[in-house]
User: Fold this.
Amino acid sequence: MDAQNRRFRAARVSKRFYRGRETAPSRSRLGTERSGQARLVDATGLISLYAYAMRRRDILLSAPALMALTADEKLAILGGSPVRKTPFPSWPVVGPGEEETLGKVVRSRRWNRNALTRTFEETWAKSLGARYCLATMNGTSALFAALNALGVGPGDEVIVPAYTFVATINTVLMCHALPVFVDTDPATFQIDARKVEGAISPRTACILPVHLGGSPADLDTILAVAAKHRLPVIEDACQAHFAEWRGKKVSTLGTFGAFSFQATKNLNCGEGGALISNDEGMYEAARSFHDCGRSHGRAAVEYISNGANLRMTDFQAGILLEQLTRLEQQSRVRESNARYLTSLLSKIPGIQPAKMHEGCTRNAYHLYMLRYDASKFGGLSREKFLKALSAEGVPCSPGYRPLNKEQFLETTFQSRGWKRLYPDIRRNECPENDRLCQEAVWFTQNMLIGPKEDMDQIAEAIRKIGLHWS
Assistant:
């Protein structure tokens, strides 16, 4: 196809776009649609390619040039045939083992924390190369137990990333401590470890990095800064099951590591969590807190600290033990598919897959993350790109909003108690994170557990959109 015809393809539309009209609209009408970029219009989400054509001065606007595309060439959001017509693999993957295990728990009449929970703790700790594992009701409670074991409380500050799920911040607020946000490294989507030391103050109680999407944060830099300032590190590994930093499983390098087993996670039981540690004293403190402050190993019940009921049940543990039998194989498939997908997407202008730090020896790929550059797609906004990609049969998400700017934080900080504790709150500006939140695109982990051809279709769908809009 010659260059002129290739350019024409960006301006062609089906006659169905005009609801039965036999001719293209007049130049005067097209003139009213000039907006500087193409628009998605009406309830069906159709894209006004005419507005785009008006912006491209090198495209002729005569009616013969506005020919209908074939069903395969036309964008699905315009009524064309989508690249992918079947759904991606469902999640979670289940087998007869889950049902059998739950039946055994029901019949045992021991539905609380019992033998299966202890078995899971031992199995999960061993799989990570850790000394201790404390099973909890969810990932939030694992982080909460870790912070309390460290004695984090009112007047303290905790260093956190700006790009993370809200639970990371909520656990700090639950301790009545102040989250201090550090900007994001857009290339990796991780906390910018080079900026952590600048956020430390005399009030800093610990550093809480997140291994976002399953890709480890820069632990070399973070752990060095923490050691220099004698600060504990809690690794939020809630999205990083089996991820590794220099050959060691994440969650085992800091004072604590926390996992989530929520329904979307790579290892899941609907809701669940775990806290990892190699320090016996820290483990015992967290264990007591998660069990209402009880002591352990004594004949009589004794309460040795404040606490909460954060215990896992055998129902959750039983499902986790079954799901764990598949985790390694699923992880390998995700890694292989993610590498292949990166090789495809890296060749598409305007698409930048997230990079990994040099010390990352294994990425869990709970999320496949990339940055979208609208300027390489003819100015098509990310919102419209996501709609067009979804219409092609590829589910996608814009990711997180700037967490440090959420209204709930302002409401919290303006409350009576918080004003007494923190009369002069340091509100962090995170400009790189702001930009990332406008560019990010996510694919979920279940999209990476199918055949290699699924990756080809993801890349094909993006190329198709680019062909029409670049």
About this structure: The CA atoms of residues 238 and 322 lie 19 Å apart. Residues 3-78 form one domain.
